[in-house]
Amino acid sequence: MKRTLDEVLKSKVNALHYGNRLLLPIVVDVLKASVENDIITDFSSNERGAEYTVNEDFTEIYFHDYKSLEEVVTKYEVIKLIVVEKGEDIFDLKAHRKITVDLLEDHLAEIKEITDDQIFID
Fold first, then answer.
1. Which residues of 77-94 are buried (b: 16+ CB within 10 A; e: fewer)?
2. CA 92, CA 15: separation in Å to the nearest integer?
3. Do 102 and 112 touch, CB atoms closer than 8 A?
4. Is 102 left (phi over 0), alpha (psi -120 to 50) or beta?
């Protein structure tokens, strides 16, 4: 079931995390990720940094530099992402959406959109 980011945010649909893998219930291109003190903008490697795969109705991101996201993303931290939904113009800056992913128990992860008054490292 393909969902938009707005639908996921409104319905509070959770993402999932397993080890170094994050599964988002949306179909997006990932432009930037911030995990712990690392800012990742190159998703071309399958050995270092991160890579993502866009599937029919979800996107999965592998963070290769971490064995487990739970070990580095504490309850006071979040994963920050800049994403563009499939079908949107990646070159239109208005289509760039800033979201956070908060790791929860039982492999769940909560997605929130960053508001203009919240800090996000561009």
1. ebbbbbbbbeebeeeeee
2. 26
3. yes
4. beta
CA atoms within 13 A on the CB side of 65: 16
Write out residues in the chain with pLDDT < 70, as ranges: 116-122
CA angle 78, 83, 88 (to 5 degrees): 160
Q: Sort residue 87 into left (φ over 0), alpha (ψ -120 to 50) or beta.
A: left
Bridge pairing between strands 15-18 and 38-40: unpaired
**Helix, strand, or coil here: 69?**
helix
Residues 6 or more apart whose CB falls under 8 angstroms from that of 77 comprise 36
CB proximity list for 64: less than 8 A, separation 6 or greater: 20, 45, 46, 47, 48, 49, 50, 51
* Contact present, 13 and 107 (Cβ < 8 Å): no
Q: What is the pTM of this model?
A: 0.91
Q: What is the mean pLDDT of the chain?
A: 92
Please give the span between the terminal C-alpha atoms of the chain, in angstroms, as a whole number: 31
